[in-house]
Write a structure and sequence with these properties.
about 450 residues, alpha+beta, Helix Hairpins, Heat Shock Protein 90, five-stranded antiparallel β-sheet, five-stranded mixed β-sheet, about 55% helix, rod-shaped, binds adenosine-5'-diphosphate
Length: about 450
């Protein structure tokens, strides 16, 4: 059975059972109340009769008194101590013979007379002769039966009438719950068949779980699609970028094969080019691996780190290796909660760029700004044109291919730096003026409560 039908059938059945049970209870209690009312009335009449009988001195007039108290559609019988009927007055023939054995725990009995119900009460009284006898008073429950029959029809009518909206609402409920699931199945099937990232169609309103499920599914598909596109673009960029050094290596190898044995200069030039291109490829592959790792599930380990010694640790080897002047300006310790290993990698990328694209001194500073710390890397080099700034963090983006080629750049450094900054919860800003220089700021929050993954 389909989920829609299940919800419909089960909820309708449940409501039907509840309704029937409620109506049975109403019917039962109403019956009880009616019997009790009839009993109270009959008891009152019996008490009055007892009082009237106690006034009599002989049993001659007892018959007349009994007739005066006989209920409409009823009977009164007097039975002596040896269970012999003494007197019997009745408005319907045979009604007085209605068997009314009353248990001591029951105040009255219900018997059948001519297919109808009759209520009988029994009580001991003192007969005018002084003997203690039993008086039985019986009354047909015609009104009660009629009321009960009417109530039965009303309750059956109410049940049938109530089932109409119940059936309709259970159908609506079934549709409401299963509609998004059906849409989800359609979207998943379409995705499976076409190999694309299909979303659930239709407008998603509301804040309930089903609307949330639709929105989450669509967002997930959107994200998967974006990731897939990024991946595809990365693979095509990577293969394109690797093709250039491979072509250079191939053409120089051919040149070597053709003319390398006769000409020493050709050998020198070809080998230098091959060595340099191989180095570039190696660096590119290392960075691509870094990027692949960073878009995986690497977990940052946040702990308190003093940024001043951390920056010094990055600057020192650069100073020594390239013999460049790198100034650090810091006012004592600057403690932040971050992952020191990744932050070092980020700062290295920025400082290495400053070194590659400038010739003068490089200036770095650490500034404490209330809840965050700002690290600045400033150079007085070539700068970046304004039109290139929005793309500077894109993978493989280079301002001028030639510029990077000469400096050995791959166009991956800043995109790695950006991914690290995002993972650390830090912000990267860049300002640059062509032929004046570039300033990159890393703004790191001092406290980080949530562990982040990237
Ligand atoms: P690359 O490996 O080519 O340096 P990056 O992603 O680190 O790759 O940088 C992208 C481009 O931005 C570089 O090609 C370079 O032209 C430019 N660039 C980055 N940093 C600087 C800087 N400090 N000064 C001038 N240009 C820069």
């Amino acid at each position: 059975m389909k989920l829609k039908k299940k919800i419909h059938v089960y909820s309708t059945l449940l409501m039907f059972v509840l309704l029937v049970l409620a109506n049975i209870l109403i019917y039962f209690f109403f019956g009880r109340m009616s019997y009790n009312t009839e009993y109270e009335q009959l008891l009152g009449r019996a008490k009055e009769l007892t009082a009237a009988l106690s006034q009599l001195e002989t049993e001659v007039d007892a018959d007349i008194v009994l007739r005066a108290f006989i209920p409409a559609n009823g009977a009164i019988s007097i039975i002596d101590s040896s269970n012999k009927p003494l007197l019997n007055v009745q408005s319907l023939a045979g009604l007085g013979k209605v068997e009314g054995k009353i248990k001591s725990s029951d105040p009255y009995t219900i018997n059948r007379y001519d297919g109808r119900e009759a209520l009988t009460i029994s009580m001991p009284i003192i007969w005018p002769t002084g003997e203690v006898v039993t008086m039985k008073m019986t009354q047909l429950l015609t009104d009660v039966e009629e009321n009960m029959r009417a109530l039965k029809y009303v309750l059956i009518g109410v049940t049938i009438f109530a089932m109409i909206p119940i059936t309709l609402s259970s159908m609506t409920l079934g549709r409401l719950v299963t509609q998004p699931i059906e849409k989800l199945i359609i979207a998943m099937n379409r995705s499976r068949q076409s190999g694309t990232y299909e979303k659930m169609t239709g407008v998603v309103n509301g804040n309930d779980e089903l609307a949330q499920m639709e929105r989450t599914f669509n967002e997930m598909m959107e994200q998967l699609e974006q990731n897939y596109m990024k991946q595809e673009q990365f693979v095509s960029n990577a293969s394109h970028e690797l093709k250039t050094p491979l072509t250079v290596i191939e053409s120089y190898s051919r040149l070597l094969a053709r003319r390398g044995f006769e000409n020493r200069d050709v050998v020198d030039e070809a080998l230098n080019a091959i060595i340099s291109e191989t180095g570039r490829m190696k660096e590119m592959i290392t960075q691509m691996l870094d990027l692949a790792k960073s878009s995986g599930s690497e977990v940052f380990e946040f702990k308190e780190v003093d940024l001043t010694p951390l920056l010094e640790a990055v600057v020192k080897p650069l100073r020594q290796a390239y013999d460049r002047e790198i100034i650090i300006e810091a006012d004592g310790p600057a403690i932040v909660e971050t992952d020191g290993k990744f932050l070092k990698q980020l700062l290295f990328i920025l400082l290495d760029n400053a070194r590659k694209y400038s010739d003068r001194e490089i200036f770095t500073s650490i500034k404490d700004e209330h809840d965050e710390v700002e690290i600045t890397v400033k150079d007085y080099g070539k700068g970046i044109p304004q039109s290139d700034l929005p793309h500077i963090f894109d993978r493989f983006y280079r301002v001028e291919s030639d510029r990077s080629r000469k400096t050995g750049g791959t166009g991956l450094g800043l995109s790695i730096a950006k991914e690290i900054a995002d993972g650390l919860g830090a912000t990267l800003t860049i300002e640059s003026v062509v032929d004046m220089g570039t300033v990159i700021r890393v703004i790191i929050p001092k406290k980080r409560t949530v562990l982040s993954e990237f």
